[in-house]
Amino acid sequence: MSKDLLSRISAEMPRFSKGQKLIARYLIDHYDKAAFMTASKMGATVGVSESTVVRFASELGFEGYPQLQRTLQELIRNRLTSVQRIEVTSDQIGDEDVLTKVLNMDIEKIRRTQEDVSVEEFNRAVDAIVSGKNIYIMGVRSAAALAGFLGFYFNHIFPNVRVINSNSVGEMFEQMIRIDKNDVFIALSFPRYSQRTVQAANFAHNSGAKVISITDSHMSPLVEQSDHVLFARSDMASFVDSLVAPLSLINALIVAVGLRNRTEVSKTFDKLEYIWEEYNVYEKADGQK
What we know:
The protein is an alpha/beta fold and 289 residues long. It is built from 13 helices and seven strands. The protein has two domains: 2-76, Winged helix-like DNA-binding domain superfamily/Winged helix DNA-binding domain (Arc Repressor Mutant, subunit A, Orthogonal Bundle); 117-261, Glucose-6-phosphate isomerase like protein, domain 1 (Rossmann fold), CATH 3.40.50.10490. Helices cover 57% and strands 10% of the residues. Strand 3, helix 11 and strand 4 (210-215) form a beta-alpha-beta unit. The longest helix has 19 residues, at 98-116.
């Protein structure tokens, strides 16, 4: 519904009441701001009552205004520029007590991820990863940090892990040239979605590899290319992408995969502890020699 919401509102404009037309025009012209307004604030902004706003949402087929608001938020996530993000977040958060507000927003994203994630799909993704001969991981821009984190720990668990470097499209495909049906490709992307990650997932899919995507919603362009999709709530905190929930999901994935290979993982870390001690990788705790 979200993909054609604005065009549907425009098409149905003639049948709306005078008050509903005011709401409709505001949504079409300022959907980026409207997505984060309460029904009360929306009404005050366009000059109608809160109940008129609620009835307008029902008129469009939504169960209530919150569902309309969530649909608008999904719609804008991949459309807003960084400048628009700053403007929207200024309205959401303001300048006071930013720390508490941002932390609470991140807590809410983790809570909603826990509610939405499919345990069965999560376990199927773990099965695919454990069965893979080679594991390819790709995330670019802000998602590169997630890809690097996942690759760092998977390299301690599996012998053949490659985090794809996407400095150029040519180099990206060169690193994936041997991917086949025995392999797993893990794609990470959140709004604004990376074209390169989508292209790489498509290449992996066409090569027969199992594609596992970690993304934010069914609207993600990665979904169509994927054998398994793990959804984690992501949102914007000003010009910054909030990736707390995706990172928490990745932590769970690493732990689940590690538990499936606990014997080998224990042997690996036993060797690593010797290396870390031998070459003074870490500072020693008080009392250690």
